[in-house]
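Quick log. Single chain, no ligands specified.
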Amino acid sequence: MSPTTLRTFAPIIFLLLWSGGFTVAKVGIAGAEPMTLLSLRYGCVVILMLPFFFYIKPALPSTSKAWRDLILVGFLIQVVYFGAAYLAFARGASAGAVAIITSLQPLLVALIMPAVSKERVALRNWVGLLLGVIGATMVIRDNLAIQVTSVTALFLVAISLFSITLATVWERLFGVAHHPVTSNLVQFIVGFAFTLPIAMATETMQINWSWPFAGALFYLVVCNSLLAISLLLMMIRNGEATRVSALFFLVPPVSAIIALVTLGEPITWLGWLGMAIAATGMWLARNTKQKV
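-> predicted structure:
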């Protein structure tokens, strides 16, 4: 696949892979405690990537600043974002709750970017962002039965939201292009280095192996960890952060479609209407040139 073709289809591929992760993570949590699952996931990713690293021998970050930025973004995404989301799952938050709350990320990015960079958000983009929130909320409320059973779970989801927002802004402002093997390997080593000690200190680390758990682990390792994160970082570096973040508005609707296909959960007319509104909002937010 050529670089141009990859850039063209990257948003669609990322959206499908990322949206499926919410349902799959709930399956994984049923077989292992949150930090145990994350450390197992990251450990598998590192093991899979090391042979490619030694074979390809990609360049490492050339400055201490580049190392700092790469490690920080990895920590925010792999440890804080996923860690808080998985802990929220274990404390009763549904996949729908996490999907809809973290889909508010584009609004936060749109508020922050004008204050810290030359990137500006036009009125049409704001309209698109608002439509995205409305459409995503309609889908989640109608189809995924949002459940947040405790204040702790809600707090954890909020931490997840702010973490992915900060990671997006930081990557856009300070991130530099690294070989995907380098960036992924470094960031997943960071994730493993933090989540394993936490799991050892706070959890039993027992794993209930089954075919559904093994399938969930494979998806989380290959689709979410290797493919989706690489596409996300690539899109952030090649486009405005606000427009890239608008993709997250379509995560709840796509999650609903995945639930329909895999679990047979119905989508009513209100859900389909919400998807149309979210798609319109995403188009407005992604297809307007920013004023500088």
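The chain is about 80% helix and 0% strand.
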